Amino acid sequence: MDRRREELMAAALELFSRRDAEDVSIDDVASAAGASRALVYHYFGGKQELYVAALRSAAEQLESRLRPQGGGRPLDELASGLRRYFDFVEEHAAGFAALLRGVPPIAPARSARSSTACGSGCSG
Length: 124
Prior knowledge:
Shape: elongated
Number of strands: 0
C-alpha cells in the first residue's frame, strides 16, 4: 500500500477517534497528515470512502492479530489472543477508538423520491 495513503488513513483514524466523523472534514485530515486536500480526494474520493478505508484497515489489523496461532492448548491460545488484543489496543489506540465509535460518518442523502414517499404523515 502507498505510504501517503497509509499516512492519510492514520491521520483520519486519529481524528475519527477523538471527534464524531461528521465533525471531521477532508481539510482536517489533509492538515493533520501534512497533505493537500486534492491528495485526500485522489486516494479516497470523499470522506465516506476515507472513513470506510480507515476503519477497514484498523479492523483488518485487529483481525490478523486475533487469528489463533494454532498448536497450543485452548487456555494458552486464549491467553495469547488476549495479549495480542490488548497489544493492539495499546499500539493502535486511535484505530481502536475509531472502531468502537463505528458509526457511519455521513447519513445517506434522502432522495426526492424517499422524502415524498411518506406524504404528510412523516416527520423529519
